[in-house]
Amino acid sequence: MSASAMDLKMDEAAKVLADPTAYADDARLHAALAHLRANNPVAYVDHGPYRPFWAITKHADIMAIERANDLWLSEPRPLLATAEADDLAKAQLEAGFGLRTLIHMDDPHHRKVRAIGADWFRPKAMRDLKVRVDELAKRYVDKMAEIGPECDFVTDIAVNFPLYVILSLLGLPEEDFGRMHMLTQEMFGGDDDEYKRGTTPEEQMAVLTDFFNYFGALTASRREHPTDDLASAIANGRVDGELMSDVDTLSYYVIVASAGHDTTKDAISGGLLALIENPAEMARLKGDLSLMGTAVEEMIRWSTPVKEFMRTAAEDTEIRGVPIAKGESVYLAYVSGNRDEEVFDEPFRFDVGRDPNKHVAFGYGVHFCLGAALARMEMNSLFTELLPRLDSIELAGKPELSATTFVGGLKHLPVRYSLR
Questions:
Q1: Residue 243 host element (H or E)
Q2: pLDDT class of 6 with cuts at 50, 70, 90
Q3: Phi/psi at 391 (nearest 5 deg)?
Q4: Which of 62, 80, 249, 291 has the fewest CB neighbours in a 10 Å radius?
Q5: CA 156 to CA 51: how far, in whole Å?
Q6: Rounded Cα gap, residues 358 and 301, in angstroms
């Protein structure tokens, strides 16, 4: 860190950002973030086992950094991980094996790799897919009716609906869906006692090995026998006329198959909990389904499944007058940006008609979420099917959030309901 950083005394509130358990405690997390926005919006954090970073908690600063992608780079530290995990990931990449997804890349390579899958998420592709998504939404609401009057909405409904959508788009066989779900839980749940595979970075990296073994076989199959699915597009994708490297190809599958459903699961379950906890907004939306578009955006803002990304300064710069040296990293606190009092009117009020809603839950700029349109459509379809059939719903137990510093949300949402 720079000399200015070394002289700083760390704000105790900033420690929550380097504590996975804080993300399982909304009250604790948001109290700390509100303090930082008001008193220390560019906060120095040196809290092991993570390397130091600067926490960026204001919406305007997050947006400015996302826009300046030539100054603020994804490599070599795209997300918060322990120093040990960072070192292991670097060593693996240097050895030709490791994770290098779109979130790890910078332009111009990022732009070229992103283009390989982009057509599958453009408006025309979404229109073509909508009938199938609506059918699946009905299937899972029907399932909810069948297993009622109680269920764990996360494990029974919210995870399976988007999982089925994205893995069908990839062209994976349905018998493999459970395996993909388990690996996703283990990868994003490395800080959560219920989900993590092991306690060491090596044990957790074994999850990546399992992903790569599966997708390596899939790549070979799709190159030999291409089919009309996203998996074939990835397997046969070319950059500058050459097939993508093994690392880039396998990593592409991993990010689509995992983040492509897990983040949507978090937004769906977080959205339902918000409706349950705000019955007036539930009644408002049920009475006027034309609000579904704004309601979905509010659910996404409210839940913010991706908690952060990180960027590294390509040269000496500053934020709000605070000097940031070349090579230092910033933590973009999306959860905080989405509750910024200067951007959102009453940010802690859940409002299904909120407009405008300039949330940063999908990121911004060149790294804007590739699957944002699909996530929005899935949520719109599910809640449009569910709410008119829902006579009543209440909590049947305590909701549980996952411990994480990256992607997460509700892992259990027990509900009691009456459904037509």
A1: strand 242-243
A2: very low
A3: -80, -40
A4: 291
A5: 38
A6: 9
Name the least confident of 88-97, 153-162, 369-378, 389-398.
Answer: 88-97
Bridge-based pairing of strands 308-313 and 72-73 is antiparallel
Q: Which of 305, 369, 378, 306 is nearest to 157 (CA)?
A: 378
What's the pTM value of the predicted model, to 2 decimals? 0.94
161-170, 307-316, 410-419: lowest mean pLDDT where? Answer: 161-170
Q: Strands 42-45 and 53-56: what pairing?
A: antiparallel
Mean local confidence (pLDDT), 109-124 = 95
Q: Are 249 and 134 in contact (CB under 8 A)?
A: no
Output DSSP code: residue 87. Answer: H
Q: How far is Cα 89 from Cα 48, in angstroms, rounded to an integer?
A: 18
Q: Given a cut of 70, is residue 9 above it in pLDDT?
A: no
CA distances from 144 to 48, 160, 161, 241, 297 (A): 43, 12, 11, 48, 24
Sequence-separated (6 or more) residues with CB below 8 Å from residue 76: 86, 90, 312
Mean pLDDT over residues 177-205, rounded? 80
Give me the domains of the chain, ranges plus CATH numbers. 3-419 (1.10.630.10)
Q: Exposed, middle or buried by CB within 10 Å (0-12, 13-18, 19+), for 204?
A: buried
Q: Which two tokens stand for residue 212?
A: 């790569």
Q: How confident is the model at residue 3 (pLDDT cuts 50, 70, 90)?
A: very low
As a whole number of angstroms, the distance between CA 350 and CA 346 comes to: 9
Give the integer Cα–Cα distance in Å for 306 and 289: 27
User: What is the spatial distance between Cα 396 and Cα 174, in angstroms, rounded to a whole number?
Assistant: 31
Using alpha carbons, list the distances in angstroms from residue 273 to 152, 153, 167, 277, 393.
12, 10, 26, 6, 10
| Alpha carbons 216 and 354: distance in angstroms, whole number | 44
Give 149-169 pLDDT, tens digit per residue: 999 999 999 999 999 999 999
How crowded is residue 205: how many other Cβ atoms within 10 Å of its Cβ?
A: 20
User: pLDDT band at 96, cuts 50/70/90?
Assistant: confident
